[in-house]
Specification:
2 domains; alpha/beta; single chain; nine-stranded mixed sheet; Rossmann fold; Dihydrodipicolinate Reductase, domain 2; binds NADPH dihydro-nicotinamide-adenine-dinucleotide phosphate; 492 residues
Length: 492
Amino acid sequence: MTSKSHAESTPQATTIVILGASGDLTRRKLIPSLCNLFCKGKLGPEVQIVGMARSNLTEQEFRDSLIEGMEAFDEFSPDSQEWDEFTSRIHYCHGDVASNDDLQALEETLRSVEPAGTPANRLYYLALAPFLYGPAILNLGSTGMAREENCWRRVVIEKPFGVDLQSARELNKLVHSVFAERQVFRIDHYLGKETVQNLLVFRFANTIFEPIWNRNYIDNVQITVSETVSVSDRAGYYDQAGVMRDMFQNHLLQLLSVVAMEPPSSFEADLLRNEKVKVLNAVRRSAPEFATQTVVHAQYDGYLHESGVPAGSRTPTYAAMRLNVDNWRWQGVPFYLRSGKGLNDKRTEIMIEFRRPPHLMFPQDISPNILAIQVQPDEGWHLEFQAKSPDEKMELRPVDLEFHYDDSFGGQAIPDAYERLLLDALTGDASLFTRSDEIEEAWEIMDPIIRGFAAPDAPAPASYVVGSNGPELADDFLAKDDRRWLNRSWQH
Ligand code: NDP
């Protein structure tokens, strides 16, 4: 890959610049992940971290706020010597990313921490509200901070990337006016999860699965991202986004594309992403007026009483959707996607339901084989198949072959997705980041559906009880296709 070979020939000194450094994402994910990488010796000796936000903090106050944040989230507790070594590399510069002068001041700070005389590489991480992505990128351009002279410059952009196809296209255009695509790392942290990467290994490093990974053997695919939390203090953002923009356009479609893609000829960023784009391109588009035939949506009871939710809001907090992938491999195999807040379970799972045997010689009706890929929690796989009950005449029952990370890898901790993704961005490997065309394809799928449900005559969202499995409507939706949701509670 171009950017990787470029990285290999550049000097070691690298600065990670976090724009929006006093926020939740920085405290909860970025700093713990960077600290972990540092403690594992993966950051390199020449790394500096510079944070910027408008709050007027001293360097020490900033460092203190980071450790308080990490303790509060209870995610990681380095020993004090490691923490001291790590924080000695953390610096702070207060300022507004929308101000050209403030970015000039940031440039001064960066130069003061970078080795004199040798240009350092820089990774700009936009941990900002989405409306600030544009101003921040334009200012990085106008101040010359995106220029690569004997060094690399990369930018990591958080989700959400746009709110619809048009805004995503405009943002891509703006980003490309400053950075080349090879410098851009649009993050979808689901792709950084070990289980999702393992899906690629599972499919393409084993010969036994790929021959059956198609319409001849698979009846349907179900992808679930369920959350127990309500919108709580994120209502302001959430009510604008809803579950379609918050979960479907990014995480769920990314999972779908990894399940459905063809094998690339090698594990290289662009080849991998080409295959994912082809899948998204093959997903059948729905016209807005038909959105209600392929999607059901609902809102949890009490959503309207959450602080920050406008009266009468019709924002869905749950949706279930059927997508068809129009290509040879998947013709006729529905992909059912569902996600919601306030449900009875926090779980991300991909279920592959295989076809029934063409002829059953046993008197008993049986359930088809199921392959369950548990993305989180309790990361692992289950393959459900039929076996004969011992000491019975011919009674069959489903049994389970399973693989779990903690059993198979000696309890080795699974790194947070951000850890992997930060390291990839630092080494210039964009395989697990979303390319501009991928983002636009995903919006092209979701846009008509979102518009369909926003129409004045569209049905209001159904309701569901907090702590339940979701609305009954979602069960009816699958029943109409003669199928049911595969809700398993695996005992491990
Ligand atoms: P927060 O609101 O917690 O933090 C935003 C940060 O931006 C603060 O440090 C704020 O500090 C700073 N900021 C605001 N305006 C400016 C400005 N004009 N110039 C410089 N800094 C500014 O947001 P999050 O950390 O939760 O989220 C950041 C991004 O990450 C969002 O796009 C979000 O969608 C995405 N994201 C977040 C996740 C999370 O777990 N939090 C998960 C996935 C994505 P100050 O007010 O001091 O300027």
